[in-house]
Design a protein that fits this description.
- Helices cover about 40% and strands about 20% of the residues.
- By secondary structure, it is of the alpha/beta class.
- A seven-stranded mixed beta sheet has the order 6-5-4-7-10-15-16, sandwiched between helices. The protein has a four-stranded mixed beta sheet with strand order 11-8-9-14, with helices on one face.
- Strand 5, helix 7 and strand 6 form a beta-alpha-beta unit.
- The longest helix has 28 residues.
- It starts with 5 loop residues before the first strand and ends with a helix.
- The relative contact order is 0.12.
- The structure holds 5-S-methyl-1-O-phosphono-5-thio-D-ribulose.
- The site of 5-S-methyl-1-O-phosphono-5-thio-D-ribulose has 17 residues, from helix 2 and strand 9.
- 5-S-methyl-1-O-phosphono-5-thio-D-ribulose (MRU) binds next to helix 2 and strand 9.
Length: about 325
């Protein structure tokens, strides 16, 4: 069984340290909001929904010191990673509770909200899974990228929630996973969590994805999202755009599985989504060893943007959205 990725202890937040997986299962303890911010920045916890949940608990840790400290925590946590909109969605919800509570009620009210954001996420992912699995045949081969699984969320996962739900529905699912350079979320995290759950899983180099599609009869590519614009453009882990282009070339359905908290209706198109650029050292080395000549620079965008015309469907907790996304997203955001 998979260990819980996020454990709330009341006086502290314990995060399964994803930098060490799959070789070591250990928890990183955060006793204040600064600890949570550092955990997000250093990728102890990662994945759009999980970042939002962890940050919500970070605000709870600050809330015992009063409203000013809670506002300070929201500001600090909002500066950790710029692309995943779930972080800002969670911070907006926490801000509302901080504004509407007295210092005395703040600890319990903020804790109740963070716990419900956490629990809601798991229920949301199960709903995404149910809607998504209906798109897969009884014997399915799926290609995924990065980790949009239990580890990236409150549990169950979005893209991996779809493959879990397919298995629960009695389907047989074979999963191909891109290794996802430079931090290997696919090779380390997705492969591990799927294997733990008894899936048939095969890791391929990122550069092999198009050939896998050509040779292995892939029924669907399913990925997560860090931010979806109002027009359906999707920001997700770097390499997603290449997969979408290859999918379109081979006629393979390209699905994005994501909660509505990943949709940013304030951003009209992908052009306006802020893309995190991480330390080039992550590219310049592999397993702690330099792989790029010392005098050669590297560029390390953590995400790319897939234009909506390459997205076959967006699988949300309220149903499967199809083009034109401007309209289907607007309807989904209003659905109860
Ligand atoms: O840099 P990461 O590991 O946080 O990037 C994660 C992804 O790109 C995921 O696909 C996305 O956050 C969706 S997680 C359900």
């Amino acid at each position: 069984m998979l260990p819980e990725p996020i454990e709330w202890r009341g006086e502290a937040l314990e995060l399964l340290d994803q930098r060490k997986l799959p070789w070591e299962i250990s928890y990183y303890r955060c006793e204040d909001a600064e600890g949570v911010a550092k955990a997000i920045e250093s990728m102890v916890v990662r994945g759009a929904p999980a970042i939002g949940i962890a940050a919500a608990y970070g605000v709870v840790l600050a809330a015992t010191k009063g409203k000013e400290a809670a506002f300070g925590a929201i500001e600090r946590l909002s500066r950790t990673r710029p692309t995943a909109v779930n972080l800002f969605w969670a911070m907006e919800r926490m801000k509302e509770v901080v504004m509407s509570s007295s210092d005395g009620e703040l600890p319990s009210k903020s804790e109740a909200l963070a716990v419900s954001i956490h629990r809601e996420d798991v229920a949301t992912n199960r709903a995404i899974g149910k809607h998504g699995e209906a798109l897969l045949p009884a014997e399915a081969s799926v290609l995924t990228h990065c980790n949009a699984g239990a580890l990236a969320t409150g549990g169950y996962g979005t893209a991996l929630g779809v493959v879990r739900a397919a298995k629960e529905a009695g389907k047989s699912v074979k999963v191909f996973v891109d290794e996802t350079r430079p931090l290997l979320q696919g090779a380390r995290l997705t492969a591990w969590e799927l294997k733990e759950d008894g899936f048939d899983v095969t890791v391929v180099c990122d550069g092999a994805a198009a050939f896998v599609m050509k040779k292995k009869a892939i029924d669907a590519v399913i990925v997560g999202a860090d931010r979806i614009a109002a027009n359906g453009d999707v920001a997700n882990k770097i390499g997603t755009l290449s997969l979408a282009i290859a999918s379109s070339r081979f006629g393979t359905p390209f699905y994005v599985a994501a909660p509505r908290s990943s949709i940013d209706v304030h951003v009209p198109s992908g052009e306006a989504i802020p893309i995190e650029e991480r330390d080039p050292e992550e590219v310049r080395s592999f397993g702690g060893k330099a792989v790029v000549p010392r005098n050669v620079s590297a560029w390390n965008p953590a995400f790319d943007v897939t234009p909506s015309e390459l997205v076959s469907a967006i699988i949300t907790e309220v149903g499967v959205l199809r083009p034109p996304y401007g309209e289907s997203i607007e309807r989904a955001m209003k659905a109860t």
